[in-house]
Amino acid sequence: MSAKNYFKIPFFRLLFPSWGFFDTTSGVASLEWQLASANQPHTWQSFPQKIQRKWFHYFFNPKGNFFHYWNHHCQLLFHLSQTLSPEEFQNSEAFQRIKSEVLRKVPHHCSHWKIRLSYLDLDAQKTTTIFETSFEN
Amino acid sequence: MNDFFTFQITLFFACLCFLQTGFEFIFELHSQRKVQFLGGLYITSALIFLSPLSYIFFIIPILTITSSTYLLKKPYNGGSDQLLFYVSFGLFIGRYLEDHQFSLSPIFLFLSFLICLTYFYAGWVKFRSSSWQNGRAFWQSSYLSCYGPLSPKTSSSKIITQLILVFELLFPLSLFHPFLAIIFIIGGMSFHLGNIYLLGLNRFFWTWVICYPSLLWIAKNYHIF
Fold this sequence. Notes:
The complex is a heterodimer. By secondary structure, chain A is α+β, with helices and mostly antiparallel strands. Chain A has one domain. In chain A, strand 3 and strand 4 (126-136) form a beta hairpin. A 4-stranded antiparallel β-sheet of chain A has the order 2-1-3-4, with helices on one face. In chain A, 28% of the residues lie in helices and 24% in strands. Chain B folds into 2 domains: 1-103, no CATH class; 105-225, no CATH class. In chain B, helix 1 runs antiparallel to helix 10 (202-209). The chains are: A alpha+beta, B mainly alpha. At the A-B interface, helix 1 and helix 3 of A face helix 1, helix 3, helix 4, helix 5 and helix 7 of B.
């Protein structure tokens, strides 16, 4: 299934099994965000954030499953960035969904913030910034 | 282990699986209202599996998974949601057969086939990949973990990968003898517990466990050797 059509196909087709778990792992996309103000430097924060391993995660791991859900979105975003123009990419449903989720983390008093999508080539161990943009609330 | 007992154990495991997902949705810190609604649906489905209700009510778990996929725009955890959808369909048919006092063996066969297919196909995909054969993909896939990546250790990665490959490709042999079924079920549970430890994928454990009683029943009643 191409990433471009992922959000366009009928939803029930998403339940068709593929079961080729982790068949391709040549690289990993990651998303980061930061507050952007002229007078104060801010660090990039990863989204979704990694968590600490706990014993009860065998039974109850909502943050871990939340991580996997949004991390999969990030991998899709990377594929979209390879096939769509920057405008189409920013208007894609996957981007809008992830943007609104990140926005929930941005404090209300902050008017400017940025997002960047990076890709780590696991064989070369080299990270490349694929896309970066800023927003105004 | 008779038909009735095997089916009740299967329903109990399905209940645990739906409860686990339901509570995760409800207690998820970042959850939105629709996610909490889905959590409620999952818990309702779990209670239906434990109830003596007619097969008609067993449509609710199927609708729950399709609603989840629709509202979240994708399966929440890919493969586990996909298997759970098919398992729920199997349990719906199973309750129909139970209500009408038919044999439950077609359902046990269906669930056993499903679980063998998932393991074998996952193993086949890995077998064809050079990065899985040399063990590199094992630590590479850990970059998708919610706990962070493993440090690359080529020798141990290769041994673990070979063990996973052999386990997944040979899993269908479990259908042939109850002893083999028990060995592969222990292997499968260890595999999924390892996945939880390394990747945090706990939903896979609870979903796959639902099919194990059916596998044991088929191995016991239809074994070849």
